[in-house]
Amino acid sequence: MTTKYLLPEDQIPRHWYNILADLKTPPAPVLHPGTKKPVGPQDLAPLFPMAIIEQEMSGKREVPIPDEVRNALALWRPSPLFRATRLEQAIGTRSHIYYKYEGVSPSGSHKPNTAVAQAYYNKKEGVRRLATETGAGQWGSSLAFAGQLFGLEVTVYMVRISYEQKPYRRSMMKTWGAEVFPSPTDKTNAGRSILAKDPRSNGSLGIAISEAVEDAATHDDTKYSLGSVLNHVCMHQTVIGLEAQQQMKLAGEYPDVVIACHGGGSNFSGIALPFARDKINGKQVRLLAAEPTSCPSLTKGKYTFDYGDTVGMTPIVKMHTLGHDFMPPGIHAGGLRYHGAAPLVSKLLDEGLIEAVAYGQRGCFEAAVTFARSEGVIPAPESSHAIKAAIEEARKADAEGRTRVILFNLSGHGHFDMAAYDQYLAGKLEDFEYPSEAVEKSMKNLPQVQL
Amino acid sequence: MTTKYLLPEDQIPRHWYNILADLKTPPAPVLHPGTKKPVGPQDLAPLFPMAIIEQEMSGKREVPIPDEVRNALALWRPSPLFRATRLEQAIGTRSHIYYKYEGVSPSGSHKPNTAVAQAYYNKKEGVRRLATETGAGQWGSSLAFAGQLFGLEVTVYMVRISYEQKPYRRSMMKTWGAEVFPSPTDKTNAGRSILAKDPRSNGSLGIAISEAVEDAATHDDTKYSLGSVLNHVCMHQTVIGLEAQQQMKLAGEYPDVVIACHGGGSNFSGIALPFARDKINGKQVRLLAAEPTSCPSLTKGKYTFDYGDTVGMTPIVKMHTLGHDFMPPGIHAGGLRYHGAAPLVSKLLDEGLIEAVAYGQRGCFEAAVTFARSEGVIPAPESSHAIKAAIEEARKADAEGRTRVILFNLSGHGHFDMAAYDQYLAGKLEDFEYPSEAVEKSMKNLPQVQL
What we know:
Two copies of one chain form a homodimer. Chain A is α/β, with parallel strands linked by helices. Chain A folds into two domains: 19-66 and 111-231, Rossmann fold (3-Layer(aba) Sandwich); 70-108 and 237-443, Rossmann fold (3-Layer(aba) Sandwich). Chain A contains 19 helices and 15 strands. In chain A, strand 12 (302-307) and strand 13 form a beta hairpin. In chain A, helix 16 crosses helix 17 (381-399). The mean pLDDT of chain A is 94.
């Protein structure tokens, strides 16, 4: 019995899929945070290389993946696709459950898919250093690795509380040669202004973004790099779904439903967008984003214009948002604690092309442990939301007396999240459910935009 | 350019290779620790199922791998073989460096290769529970995972200092459903006797072995399981080398030298024994075991009879040993801190079929960081010894103006060893070199054996 579907290296995709080309209506404009007028390429030039800015706005359906990027991806891609037969047995379903596994990358998640592309384009345009922020460290470690491959220096502003409480992601970044500072630092105006008010500030992702953006904007040889939300990031991740389509062909099945967890949207986009293209072309397939009840941007957020960061320094985009000052509780799926959703994913939800569902973290960890005990891999807390959704889809199909083909993306392993498993196994995890009133309150501070 | 050589699932080996069949002279007998007479199958029956005891003593060249074991191995096998072209560039060598990567297993090392086989045979013979010891936790987590797959309970006696200082391997074991106790415990006579003398004992691998063995010997439904040293364990690991032989064919090359790190000997045996068979059959190939200078059993030990454990409760075997009361310093490659070497590996060294070399940990971490920054994967400290040896072989070939084909086994990733990388990067790691006199002193307490 075959459980794995592998592709040879020459089947790493040669093009990224850009769903902007297939949308029924054009995406909403991106607005300058000061003028609230649409931004042009020149507004973004201090932060990103031109190739990335072009990709961000491109209407080309297929964007070629440079050989240098494919060669870097080949260190771990194509990633394997598994039929989860032992999970199926463990939950007693008649449905067929498949998962694509992105934890085989050096940093252990899907993040390097875009990190190597971004590092490549920056290097090609003569950039010497990249600045970025990281929370728990998935993105920072991925960019550290990618920067090392292309000979770029990488500076990571890591939220101080994570820097202190989760030292091992920080160690990974340093092993890959990056410079890592606990944010807020005294190296930027943004950091100094926070420290002046609170010298012992724990930091936040919003502050760390401000520091990284300021670092890039104030150094000619330095650009900024972001790990989710933006169009080009979502597009870089489509290698996941493009490979999965080939692998499902090898398995001789086509999914009834494609599932991924959703934080900023890059992981969900990665597996779902190529299947969304099939759907646009008439194929029957459901696309399901699984998010935490503690940060329910897709299921309870409003589709409107909002800032990408907490403090209102980044461009304003139209997205499903809980309000940029929404403060999600400290759940263990740190990668899903973002107040908004990628504009692309938001638009697909608005157009009815995709669905979203929210789960509490206890149920997700229960699903993760069931998965670890049957399939072996200990999942990242983020990925556990996709597992939970896959199991629920299988159970619903069983209840309806049907057999469903389910595909989900296991975006990463949980090797750096074992403390969360300890808490779950000790019965100490809490669920957080946000009442709609609380979400409405956090949306009172949205930017005033007139188009 | 292809960097990975993958095999389809149906090429997971169907037989283990048992090198006992090809030795020029029979192996030395295994002696009872009390009577010092050769042990028979019945002496081992309280600890192991009969199928394992037969394998331990078998002279059959090829031992079939049961389908149930192959299906379990298929969760991650065949493991990939890589051409390390980026490492070659980083060190500027003309040699070709290949590595087999065992870190893709759920627990992140080669250990599950034998864990699933041992769990299967125990389950088949009606065993309900397995008891074992673990130091830093690589073996304990692998057996926890394997036990879960076959529906066996697993009890792990984990050295107390590791239990407290390295909590995440413990968390993995619990996630896979194992029961984990800090050793010494009050559950065994062995543990109680230690605690009576020192209630705050840090424990040791020797004590933990005694506890696990006593647990198995005193419970009818429980057997003992060991992760290295023994013949059957080395044989189970030969799937590594058997796959690597197929993958080197795909690469169109045959290695001049095959390298692995050496602790108890199972990892080295795994990749080297199938190539040793080629060598016995006339092929030109060097087989090189890389060990730490802090625990140099192969390079400075004596080939003689000694106990397998520290306290003298286990059978006496002929092996390269530093003396069973040799106490290696606390280097970060915890899996290489064993006073002896597998009897099989020892015999091959004695017969001149293999070579051994020792390196200090600083040079090994330097090699590991070079590897991480070129190939991506952050290696386990144990595996870094193989990387160091591979780089040295490449450099020697360059100095001689030759091109060498080098194959090494990357036995695992370092995701649970990042604190060691922190220490290395901070310049805080020490090297330990044992003067021959010190080793001679630790060998004064060898058992008196007359055959």
